[in-house]
Amino acid sequence: MERLQLLENWIKTHFPDKSFTLSPASADASFRRYFRATFNDRTLIVMDAPPQQEDCAPFVHVAGLFAAAGAHVPTILAQDPTQGFLLLSDLESTTYLQALNGDPDKADCLYRDALAALLKIQLASRPGVLPEYDEALLMRELNLFPDWYVAKHLQASLGASRKAELDAVFKRIVRNNLAQPKVFVHRDYHSRNLMVTTPNPGIVDFQDAVYGPITYDLVSLFKDAYIRWDEERILDWIIRYWEEARTAGLPVAADFADFYRDFEWMGVQRHIKVLGIFARLYHRDGKAGYLRDMPLVMEYLRKACERYRELNPLLTLLDGLENKPPEAKVGYTF
């Protein structure tokens, strides 16, 4: 309550003669909170990022980069980094997830807009302005899986030989990830962070952006933890992106089969990380809602591991952890 009072007082310093009401605007997996300030003539969004746990500076920095690229992000109207407050323009309240659940027929149109915005961001990419998605960060994310999903969530122990196998697979995955061309990476470019707006989409939650593998945001978008699409449809969207990226001059692989393999392997890294994060959100932070999203993420992970011989040890490990019999292998040919 004390922070909420501080937040209200800060807003009043910017609008001393206007009354407003505050209501929660969105849930967040971090310590950040978002509120909608409703005035008589408009609404604004207020970010509360406690300085002890969060830093507003990356949000401000990335907002500038993405806006300069032509993407639709919130305008920063006022900021107080000492207190951890930002006042933002309101990108409305309809997420892609809500719109797609309400009318799945909108998918092609919405994803076309999302890809167009992503291409703008990627075309504006340059090294040295965002943190590198380097080996240390990729491995730190992967290790959330044994630490939180296996040990905490499943209450399982890997043992020395299994741990060695997992480490070997992790190194293989990271080697692929690091070999991919690099661009600006939102890092959570999915249906909960894309808003239905004009121009479309409105993009939020980009403060963790990095400079890294070109396929990463495509994985976030199309192998989304919160909504399921048929693999054939995902493939069609990926082909569309690849063709548009090549035309635009982005450094995607010349052969689509190579590009799709990169996409799948990047997905394996993200799915492993997400399982660890969801387990941590539940066991450390008491956020049980993410448990219902775990099965889809695990399905993505298992299907990719079934398709690539080099990832079979990970599939065997998953089978052992879940006491499942091995499944038939499925492959793609292009």
TrEMBL record:
Residues 22-248 form the Aminoglycoside phosphotransferase domain. Pfam families: APH. The keyword Repeat does not apply. InterPro entries: Aminoglycoside_PTrfase, Kinase-like_dom_sf. Keywords: ATP-binding, Nucleotide-binding, Transferase. GO terms for molecular function: ATP binding; transferase activity. This is Aminoglycoside phosphotransferase. It comes from Nitrosospira lacus.
